[in-house]
Amino acid sequence: MPECQVDPAREVVQRIVSAINDYRFHWLGRVYQVGASAGMTQISPENCHSSEVLSQADVACYNAKRSGRGRYVVYEQHQLPLAGEHHPLNAAALNALKIDLNAWAVAPPQTPQAHSFWLLEPVFTANGTLLDESLLRNNLPDEALQRLIDNNIIEAFFRHDLQTLSKKGIAVILPLNANALNDAEFVQRLCSRFNQAGLATCRSGFAFDAASVLNGSDRLHAALLQLRHCGCRIVLAHFGRNLDAFNQLTGEMVDCLLLSPELIANVHSNLMDEMLVSIIQSQAGQRNIALLAGPVTVPAVLNTLASREVSGVWGSAVAAPQRLETLAE
């Protein structure tokens, strides 16, 4: 809704939700009702990245659905909904968060049914309310709490039956904060647990933010090589328009690049974005690095990415997410 403030938008959305909830239709002698809930977020100069806006609206939709039928929720840009807490987050609050792991199938764009591995997505909830991970991390006052989140994600990951996944050849990629790799003990423990779970045999691994890795220290780069030597597949996520990055990238450090969502959102209708994807694919291919893209929600994007020889895609256009614990079943 362009040129629209939050309060008028509330009224519009409430009318839409009410109209759907009040609608009845007859089919084969029965009366049916459709339920609806809605999530909203405001676009502004300070909040205009498509991936962030969509993520915020998604969080608001999820919380509206959890609140009951016929509701709408406005995403609160600067508030973290943690049960009445208005002080900086502490370790106890982070440890109380529930962490689930959703799994998105990554498949070739031309054959989306033939998935090759699964990209995991941590989902944080507090008292049944979904929390946005980036907002959660931005509210943390120090590095120790950032590290605690990473440790908790790791613990949530290794609580699953990973050995069964490995035996069945099901590969998964877990996103982590690249700053955690500056801790040598953390990296050593991660390698040890990775090997104990047998994850190297199915080429599972970890994803890190591309900018954090490219701007990282020599210690961080050494940690990536250490993970590679343990059999980890390494994915650099949110890879965008910085072609100079290929001066640093080699196939010895990285297995896959995951394109930034902003770059592929309109790739089927924007020739400049399509050509840039083609250039990135060519540069990555010369270094034996696979190119991935997602989330893809529009089927037409699959055709464009296939024509540009992107190796794998994920998103609702490929398949809905599954819970990690269901994959072994």
Quick recap:
It is built from 13 helices and 14 strands.
Report on this model:
The structure is a single chain. This protein is of the alpha/beta class. The chain has helices at residues 6-22, 50-67, 91-95, 133-138, 143-158, 162-167, 184-196, 210-214, 218-229, 261-264, 271-286, 299-307, 324-327; strands at 24-27, 30-33, 38-40, 72-74, 98-106, 117-126, 129-131, 172-175, 205-209, 233-239, 256-259, 290-293, 312-313, 322-323. A hairpin with a 2-residue loop joins strand 1 and strand 2. It has 2 domains: 6-74, no CATH class; 91-327, Alpha-Beta Barrel (TIM Barrel), CATH 3.20.20. The chain is built from 13 helices and 14 strands. Strands 5, 6, 7, 8, 9, 10, 11, 12, 13 and 14 form a 10-stranded mixed β-sheet that branches. Strands 1-2 form a two-stranded antiparallel sheet. Helix 7 (184-196) runs parallel beside helix 9 (218-229). The protein is globular and about 60 Å long.
